[in-house]
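Why do we care about 3D structure at all? Because function follows from shape, and shape follows, mostly, from sequence. That is the central idea of this module. The next example makes it concrete: a single protein chain, its amino acid sequence, and then its structure expressed as tokens.
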Amino acid sequence: MQEKTSALVADAGKQSLRYKVAGMDCPSCVTKVETALRRVPGADDIGLNYHTQILRLTLDEATTSRAKLEDTIRNLGYGVEPQGDLRVVADRPAGEVDETAASEERPWWSTPKGRLAILIGILVAAGYLASWLAPVLDAYALAPAALVGLTVFGRRALSLARVGSPFSIEMLMSVATLGALLIGETAEAAVVVLLFAVGELLEGVAAGTARSGIKALSSLVPRTALLVDGESARAVPAARLEIGHVVLVRPGDRVAADGEVIEGESDVDESPVTGESVPVPKQVGSSVFAGGINATGALRIRVTRTATDNTIARIIHLVEEAQASKSPTARWIERFSARYTPAVIAVSVLTVLVPPLAFEADWHTWIYRGLALLLIGCPCALVLSTPAAIASGIAAGARRGLLIKSGAALEAIGRVRTIAFDKTGTLTQGRPQVTDLVPLVGTERSLLGLAAAVENGSSHPIAKAILDRTAADGVPLRPARGQKAIPGKAVQGVVTGKLIEVASPRHAVERCGPQGIPSDRIAALEDEGKTVVVVLADAQPVGLVALRDEPRPDAAEGVALLRGLGVRSAMLTGDNGRTGQAIGRGLGIDVKADLLPEDKLREIAALRARGPVAMVGDGINDAPALAAADVGIAMGGGTDVALETADAALLGNRVADVAALVRLSRATMANIHQNVAIALGLKAVFLVTTLSGVTDLWLAILADTGATIIVTLNALRLLRQGR
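And the structure:
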């Protein structure tokens, strides 16, 4: 077993371990395991993800062995299995079975909880049959069922109490069952353990359904790939592809790895990854994602990422981390629950003692009611109310290409009052084209050649547009040296002994004054929604280059959708005022232009004074503003920046998806409020009915297991948001 464990030396004598912990029904199970492990000598850095059931910790094996650590977890009633590194589940040929997946998805009746529920159910049925056939056995016929349940759950309760969790549902249920047996309520005790066993089983089934919200992504990557070897292609495991390998993707095949098209043209359906419903045209130089479906033509793709690092693997990892994070609401409920359970136990003790001692009431009646209150005391449904909804919301977003990186971010997005957008690459397509060349000295070709020389090597959209026009016009590139960028102002370099600058009009005026700069022509071009740069040679203007970047097709729709949700939109751009206003008028959005990076920070601060603010940008130039906003949202189509910058990423590059994020956040928060109301409402009802003598023990147990199942199923409704 130890050979299967992924272990790295953390420091002297310590190992970093990774386990799969099976059988967790709700987040309170995580608390139980973590509390127990914190008492294990030598165990540190303990983290258990309820949704993935993955436990990570470091262990000093000189103090505690792995076997003892694993026994501690098993004694709590959970399965434990060492895990290796992150793996991506792949498609398999017909008839081939993934043994690991099969063990994780066993039929309910073959699981330990399923077998226990069936056994107790048979004993209860046999007990009722025996009492009907032989009424003299009525007082004892159901005792075996109660004792079997009490043995299993009582042993687990004692293990939990020894490791620091005395107020577990197992302890409360065991005390209630034992008390019922002692006062002669054998049938009640048997039905309680049966309902508890069935409830645990149903909770496990519901929890498994919730965990499947993101698992579908991992099955998108095909198991094999066609590796191009010379003039032939041979099938190889996709997991063995390395960076630089070339693979053939035929029409109808799934793409086996992230890569770049080096030959062929086709349309690729990337909806499983980005949520983009329309197939995306691909040609030489285009990027493709693992899991996309090739539609029309054959493609040769150079692999740029290994299987464990492709877009789907990174999305799964980030979503798992997001689901493991605790939102502010979840943390508040955990603190509340820590006080709630002891309070209910105190009330149940008072219920047993006060009426008989103070009012000479019947002991049997009030012991019975006190035991029923114990069953109401477990806060499982309440603790689950928030993380279940958050996990479903994050999984639903991932299905639509909306990557949300934490529960806190998902909560915050729905509360924003203003969303600030960058212009280039966010509201616009980020692919400007040169529309006008206005030489003041020399010819259009010489003007274009000077601008291209200093822009060569830059990844900025304006640089790319100038270089594309240079290539199209057949203008040779001149060598440049000393190239550097002055953010928000200019790019400069030395060409043929002269300092050439491609500058914003404002910076050009600062450099050489207004003389010689045709401000009227610049204004006319900007009024047409074009961006104008001034080319300077030794601080003297030699010409203008005008470019236009068209708005994204859904930009106006996206702004309108936000307006319908009561969210104000604003454009923050470093472009000039006239160009910004021209774009803004078409989109119906407020505009702040001529902003340097530090100016954007001031605007974000001003907007935050009015309420929570989200910033949407490309994740590169807008990093400071993304960080300064309450929520940073990156447009990036699955790039490293989109996945690793900001709090959320729109993998499909659609402005309308910002409104979808807001709707998803609000739906998730509404779901949380419903869950809390269900959890507390049911317990309040059962509290009143129990004290008034209406509720039996077997109905009281439904206040916990029933509420937990209802809360889980309600949270699963959010998965429809991802369809």
